[in-house]
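User: Structure tokens for this complex, please. No commentary.
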Amino acid sequence: MSSEYKIEIRNLQVGFGKLMVIKNLNINIMSNCVTAVMGPSGCGKSTLIRTINRLNDLVPECHVKGQVLLDGRDIYDPSMDVVELRRRVGMVFQKPNPFPKSIYENIAFGPRIHGIAGGNSLDEIVERSLRAAALWDEVKDRLDAPALSLSGGQQQRLCIARALAVQPEVILLDEPCSALDPAATAKIESLMVSLKKDYTVIVVTHNMQQAARVSDFTAFLYLGELVEYGETRRVFENPSSKLTEDFITGRFG
Amino acid sequence: MEEARLLDKGLNELSDLLDEMAKIAEKTVSASIQAYLEGADIDLQVRQWSDTLINYNNQVGEKAVELIARYQPVANDLRTIRACMEISYNLSRFGRYAYDISTIHKTIGGRGEHGREVVSEMGERTMKMIKASIKAYKTRDARLAEEVSEEDKIVDQLYFKHLRDCVKNPPRDVEQLITDILTVRHLERIADHAVDLASSTLYMIKGQKISKWR
Ligand SMILES: Nc1ncnc2c1ncn2[C@@H]1O[C@H](COP(=O)(O)OP(=O)(O)OP(=O)(O)O)[C@@H](O)[C@H]1O
Ligand SMILES: [Mg+2]
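Assistant:
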């Protein structure tokens, strides 16, 4: 099985109680690319990416129809191991949310639960993850310090390192920079681009220029529907939909 | 009425600059052709207009860079800015070639009956192309923009026909021969820049240029 698509979403419908949020959405996400998801507040971006690791399952009134294929396999199939799914599909949230533990323990937590792969020591995994998240040099001398003593930008990179520690395949980021200053934002942006070498990256962002900078593909979501999806350069230079055009040029009413 | 976007003010400034340039460029080419046909000397005036166009072209470039740096425009805004830079450059080239036309007879000498007919016909068609390309830009008319490249084919034919005629029946007066050929050549270049201008307009409207070599 060697599809160039890491994720294929087919006829997806997601609702909360009576409210339909995602309406029959189809999208294929390319492996080893950064895909940006844009759209006005409330259009369903977070809901969409939370279906990819079944985080919505935790919301009682949430119902999901359709298929989400990861490497061709439906993740909503009853045989799917959800814990394993969430290891393979990691998530980073808008607000950095480290555990109230040491820097080291934040990273070690996941591997301890999921088991340590490939005979690596925990120390090795912690170092490799922090390096991959471009945080190692800043924290290597104080791994025992509380994670909450880090700056916001460092905390967010710690959360990325924590997501990487369990060796996922896909990383979902939901507005990962909205609480960060420009310097920290620039670091996370470079990081997202370098991560695609080893991972498939999906990022929800309200920052158009950020989507333009980091992503290979851009999806534009409006009222739970996929209005536009294509190569980022094309979407930003010559969008095919008037809605996208109005949204990205700031003419949205 | 909605609040205007900050970028719109800048785009309007670009548009005003281009309107001004278009007026001068059209007048400049028209005057240089006229002067050739009437044997008049207007190179000093044409030089001044041409310099003004070059100056405006620099202003457009600076404004465009400022807008890109400050507002990170995308989609039709981005295409408009790129098109404005290209259009402004093409308008400044009109002026430069018009200046060349107005000075050839001074550097080479000779300007007579021999090339009159072809200069007159090519001049008319080139002016028509200039006007159409400017109008297509101002009215965002994709159809009209594409017609400009059709007209260019005729200008090219006239140009090559003149070259072949000169080979077959060269006029005795070599100065006249060179002056005419260069004038006709400059007109051919101007027409080509009108196609470029129209192509930028098409890009602004539709996101794709005129495919010249189809
Ligand atoms: N747990 C929930 N229970 C009920 N409704 C929800 C829940 N989560 C989201 N919704 C609703 O689903 C819709 C889409 O929300 P979602 O969070 O996906 O939007 P979004 O595109 O991520 O917006 P934003 O840009 O503001 O983060 C909204 O109307 C929201 O109220
Ligand atoms: Mg959201």
